[in-house]
């Protein structure tokens, strides 16, 4: 393969997918209220992340990799394959894309492309896989970027939160509003917008109804073409529900590939425990 695909740890791809396609990840950073900073996925697995997040009185802080770290990955990728594409978490959610652009500029080469997925979690991971698939077909770097731009326009992400605790910790909702929503069992459903930022599109009473509504939304948005898609379901400590959701989507739409994985600390920090996301 003449192309090295690199992404960041928000991609949420399972180890078997990373190994299958030779995708490398650059770690984002997560800092908790005790002042300790961890490299996402390298030093902080999903189980430890959930445990520490539960104990944290304030929302953990996430940070992008610095340009010098990205340069190390890019230089290694160039030696390995000759060309590199970096598939980044949405620039609307993280400064990772900007840091990667700076790293590329410092290297002064046209053999590196930086791609803003305008999504996160397995949405980013799926685009990394598609870049690999095109690279294996022998497509040029420029062609791959053009095709990924088309895919980006059609990408979708829908997710629900089981608790608003992290939204309250992050200051986006007052504690009183959060308590009221929890008392009424209100479960927001969010959808990524054109700028790569999630927006609340519906509010549903009850977890089961929220999950049912997400499946209905998949049908409304892309039911006709789901058979050709890779579907990703990521979660924060709710594996059983994630598998149940995957089974519903598989039986209803029969997509060409399905991936279920834990949500990384980078995205899971904002989703909170019970966060459940569909990328397609």
Automatic annotation (TrEMBL):
Q: Which InterPro entries match?
A: DegV (IPR003797), DegV_C (IPR043168), DegV_domain_contain (IPR050270)
Coiled-coil annotated residue ranges, if any: none
Q: What SUPFAM superfamilies does the database record attribute to this sequence?
A: DAK1/DegV-like
- Per its record, what are the GO molecular function terms? lipid binding
Residues crossing the lipid bilayer are none
User: Which keywords belong to this entry?
Assistant: Lipid-binding
One Pfam family this sequence matches: DegV
Q: Has UniProt tagged this entry with the keyword Cell cycle?
A: no
NCBIfam families, per the entry: DegV
Q: Supply the name of the protein.
A: EDD domain protein, DegV family
> What is the source species?
Thermosyntropha lipolytica DSM 11003
């Amino acid at each position: 393969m003449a192309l090295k695909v690199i992404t960041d740890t928000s991609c949420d791809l399972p180890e078997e997918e990373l190994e299958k396609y030779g995708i490398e990840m650059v770690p984002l950073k997560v800092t908790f209220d005790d002042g300790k900073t961890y490299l996402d996925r390298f030093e902080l697995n999903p189980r430890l992340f959930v445990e520490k997040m539960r104990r944290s009185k304030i929302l953990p802080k996430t940070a992008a990799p610095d340009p010098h770290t990205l340069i190390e990955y890019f230089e290694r990728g160039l030696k390995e394959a000759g060309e590199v594409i970096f598939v980044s978490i949405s620039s609307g959610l993280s400064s990772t894309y900007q840091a990667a652009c700076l790293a590329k500029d410092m290297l002064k080469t046209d053999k590196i492309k930086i791609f803003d997925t305008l999504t996160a979690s397995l949405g980013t991971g799926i685009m990394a896989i598609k870049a690999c698939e095109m690279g294996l077909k022998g497509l040029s770097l420029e062609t791959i970027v053009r095709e990924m731009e088309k895919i980006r326009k059609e990408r979708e992400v829908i997710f629900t939160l089981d608790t608003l605790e992290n939204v309250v910790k992050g200051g986006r909702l007052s504690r009183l509003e959060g308590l009221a929503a929890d008392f009424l069992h209100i479960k927001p459903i969010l959808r990524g917008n054109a700028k790569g930022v999630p927006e609340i599109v519906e509010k549903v009473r009850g977890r089961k109804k929220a999950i049912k509504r997400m499946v209905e939304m998949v049908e409304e948005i892309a039911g006709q073409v789901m058979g050709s898609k890779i579907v990703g379901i990521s979660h924060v400590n709710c594996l059983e529900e994630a598998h149940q959701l995957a089974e519903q989507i598989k039986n209803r739409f029969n997509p060409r590939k399905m991936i279920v994985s834990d949500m990384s600390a980078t995205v899971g920090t904002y989703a909170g425990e019970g966060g459940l996301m569909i990328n397609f």
